[in-house]
Each structure stands twice: as C-alpha cells, then as structure tokens.
Amino acid sequence: MNWRLLIVIACVFAACQAPPPSQSPPASTDASSSAERPRPASSGVASPSKRSEPAAPGSENEPPEPGASAGAARLDADGDDDAPPQVDDSGPSAPGHFVRVGRAPLALQRICDLTPLGDSLYAAHATRPLGLDGATVTRYRPADSRPFSVAFDWNRSGEPSKGGGAGQGFLRVHAIGARLFVADADPPYNGFGLSEPGTEGFVFVSSSAGDFARARMPGHLPPRPPDADHAGAAVLPRAYHVIDVIRFRGHQYAATGSVPPGQRAWHGASPGALQVEDEIGARFRYAADYPHPYQNGVWRLTFLVRFKDRLYAGLQDYDQSEPNDYVYFAPPAEREVITQSDLHAVRVTETGTAQTLRWYVDRGALYWIAWNHSGVALRVTSDGDTWRIVALPKDAGVPADIVRFKGALHVLTSRALLRLDASGPTELARFDDKKSPFELNDSFCAPPLSVFQGALYAGGQRDGALYRFQEGD
User: Which of 137, 236, 243, 441 fits 151 for a cystine, CB–CB 3.0-4.6 Å?
Assistant: First the structure.
C-alpha cells in the first residue's frame, strides 16, 4: 500500500513502509572481532538506558538440554522447513560464473526467495516490499518446453489501486509438509474486512502438487481457506503485515506486525506479533508480541527459524531505534503452544536495531545475516547465544545468503560467490559489471541462493531474472 497516504489517515501507524537502506549497499561489517555475546535477553522491551540481563542457565525460561528426558526431545528439526540440499559427493565446486537462465512471466523486479518442491523451483517476487504493488510466485520447471510459468498472481490487475490495490511483496516461499506456504507481506487495502478489527493478512497455501488457488472473482478476492487436500488462503485477523511462516511443535506460526488485542486498527500501538494456526484452514490467532507492554510506534517480527527447540524471529521497527536485534521463543518442553512468557529479546550488535536478512541452519550451527547501522555481517552460533562474525573479503561486497552445496557452505555476496573452506573463503565467481544483479538495496528482500536438481541458483534483484552457477569458463 501507499503508506504515505495512510500517514494522513493514521499518523500513529506512521507509514508501514520501512525506510529502505541507502541506494549504496551498506558496507560489510569489519570481521576482525572473533566473537560477540548477546547483551540483554528479556521477555519485554529493553530501554536504551536500562538493559535487562540474560536468563540464567537453569532458569524456568532456559530451554532444556536435548535428550535430558523423554519429554525434552525436540519435536521439529532445526531449520525453516525447506528440505536441506541432498548430499553431493562429486567434490568441491570449482571457480566459474553465473549464467542468466531467464525471466519468468510476471517476475517483477526482485526474487526474494527460491524453494524447490518436486520437479520445480519456486520463486517469491516483489518490486519494493511494503512500498509498491507487486506480488507473484513463479515456477521454473526445466523439463518443460516452456520452463517458466506463473504459479500465483496477486497483482489484482484492474482493481482500484488507491490504498494499495495489490499485494506488496512475497518475501518467502516455504515447503512445509510437501506444500508451499507464502506469506502476504502487505495485503491489498490492508485486508478486505473479512475479520475484526478491520484489517487482516493472508498466508497462501498450495496443493501438494505446488498449485495455488486463484483469486476469487469478481473483485480478485483472496481464495477460500485451504483444507487437507485443496489450496487456499489462510486468514490472519489483526495483521497489518505477514512476513514469514513456519512450523513449530505441530502448529503453524506467522511473523507479523499486528493490532494488539483490545485495540482498534490504525490507533495506538503496532507491535510485532506471532500468530498461531492450530490446524490448516483455521484462522490464525494472536500468540505473543513485542514490545510488551505495548509502546507507540511500529514493530514487526520478520524472518523465522528453529534452532535447539527455540523459535527465532527477526525484529524491525519503523523508527530504527530498537535496542535489541532479534527475539526468540523458548516454551517449556511439556507445552506445545507459544505464549508471551516464552519471549526473550536479545541484543548482539553494539547498537542494536539489526534487521535480519537470512537465517540458515547447517550441521548444528545457526548462521545469521543481518544489517544495521554498522553494515551487513554474517554471524554463526553453535549454542544459540554466543555469536562470532564469519570473516569475508571486504572487496566481495556484503553477504546476502548462504547454503550448503557440494559438501561446503557457499555465500552469495553483492559482488561474488564464495566457498567457505577450512582455511577461509575461496572466491568462485566475481560480478564485475557496474551494477551487479545481486546488489543488496532492500532490507526485506536479499538476493537468494538455492540448490535445485544438483545445481546452484540465485535470484536477481534488477529484473527478477533467475541465474545458475556454472563451473569453468
């Protein structure tokens, strides 16, 4: 939606579009420091002048050690539900270059995420997330005579554009239980009045074949709710934005910016919130939020990942003054559903306000790419609490995504493709053009990497084109 218009209507919401990063990509954070520790961890908001301390080991909010008892076993594998790349024993990748595969119909400017399902690679598209109309999912099936096609179109062509006539970005496409889940980052008109208090968001769910239900006519309304066999759109009452979705302990969770219970839409606080769906097709409901107690201003929970039986969520606030960097939820082992008491806010960087670009879990470690006032850095933790910066060449630009390929982790940066070897990064490809197709200039949409049918793919940011890494000259 055009949030500048909405400022006049609801100044307290203060324009839901996040201030974009500078058109010049932020500098990569100096990686000379080998370790960082989280600063405050609390179940509320930490003020800049007073920081709360991390929960002590063994406290009631500390997640149990895996295997401590039969009831303490983790119910979900670490990660974000997308299947990990298959083991490839063909040897380490050799230097090469990226080849432009092509551009799908309705590809829009950016590819924000790439996820395989079956014999297809799906791409989530946006133009300027939370700022300009445009939201599509495209399908790449190389075996077809026409490999590119449109899987879902949420552009709502022909409908009134005032207030935002289309979705404003799909930021993630996840394969959960052999179906695709796509959150509507900024829904048309901020919803269609399908729920109280007058605003709602959506999560589009495909069939097991990867097919999405079309918008309902007349009016390009969202599809009906999904069920066990059919595609559809799940409704999230009170949501202004829906950034990501994940499974945790048998439930679906969505990261949102929402209207808190007991308050009217477009009035008062707008915290970042976690909403939960008990069964597919049921309406989501409010589970927990941040900051709590509520404060005037606009926050969102952003991208989600599971690690060591915790659910991690990125943080973003409109004013870019948030003292913490992310939150995590650590419910006790005997409880399935997350509540407010499970929330811990964490500061890792010197200034806070980090915006999460990517989470990635690999072989017992959690990798985190985040951008803040100091730049963009890739960090890693093995315990979920103690972080260290992964050193990358300064002339490689800024990190955007990381994935395991051919037995090693590979990092896509704005200017290069790097393989992380035991001795350090090895450059495999360099983007020497004046404008790289993988420039990072939007904090909600970083260029993605994905492994599909034994090859490494990347999503472009200039015209929504798909690229494949090819070894050799």
Answer: 137
Instruction: Output the 3-class SS for 141-165.
Output: CCCCCCCEEEEEECCCCCCCCCCCC
Instruction: Concatenate the DSSP letters of all residues of 28-60 into one string.
Output: BPP-----B----EESSPPBTTB-PPPPPTTST
CA 348, 349, 352: angle at the middle one, nearest 5?
Answer: 95
pLDDT score of 73: 47
The answer on pLDDT for 158 being more than 70 is yes
Which whole-number Å values give the CA distances from 110 to 23, 144, 162, 301, in the listed order?
A: 15, 23, 23, 21
Say how far apart CA 471 and CA 360 lie, in whole Å. Answer: 24
Buried b (16+ CB within 10 A) or exposed e, 62-75: ebbeeeeeeeeebe
What is the β-pairing status of strands 326-329 and 200-205? unpaired
- Sorting pLDDT into bands at 50, 70 and 90, what band is 74? low
Please compute the mean of the pLDDT values over residues 14-25 and round it to a whole number. Answer: 39
Helices (H) and strands (E) in the chain, counts: 1, 29
Cβ partners under 8 Å of residue 131, min gap 6? 3, 17, 20, 168
Which residue's entry shows tokens 């939370």? Answer: 130
CA distance 420 to 407: 10
Question: What gap in Å lies between CA 124 and CA 180, rounded to an integer?
Answer: 11
Considering Cα of 255, then 257, then 258, then 263, what sign does the dihedral take?
positive
Q: CATH classification of 3-54+63-471 is 2.130.10.10, yes or no?
A: yes
Mean pLDDT of all residues in the chain? 86
Residue 247 zone, left/alpha/beta (φ > 0; ψ -120 to 50; rest): beta
Task: Give the integer Cα–Cα distance in Å for 211 and 230.
Answer: 9
User: Tens digit of pLDDT for each residue in 234-283?
Assistant: 999 999 999 999 999 999 999 999 999 989 898 889 999 999 998 998 99
pTM given for the model: 0.87
**pLDDT tier at 473 (50, 70, 90 boundaries)?**
confident
Taking the CA atoms of residue 413, residue 442, residue 444 and residue 449 in that order, the dihedral angle to the nearest 10 degrees is -30
CA–CA separation, 284 and 276 (whole Å): 5
Note the pLDDT tens digit of each residue in 367-416: 999 999 889 999 999 999 999 999 999 999 999 999 999 999 999 999 99
Q: Does the pLDDT value for residue 65 go beyond 70?
A: no
Compute CA distances 390 → 194, 364, 366, whole Å: 46, 16, 12
Which H or E run contains 102? strand 96-103
> Minimal CA–CA distance to 257: which of 275, 242, 277, 276?
242
Task: Give yes or no for a contact between 428 and 410, defined as CB atoms under 8 angstroms apart.
Answer: yes
Q: 139-166 as b/e, with b when 16 or more CB fall inside 10 Å?
A: bbbeeeeebbebbbbbbbeebeeeebbb
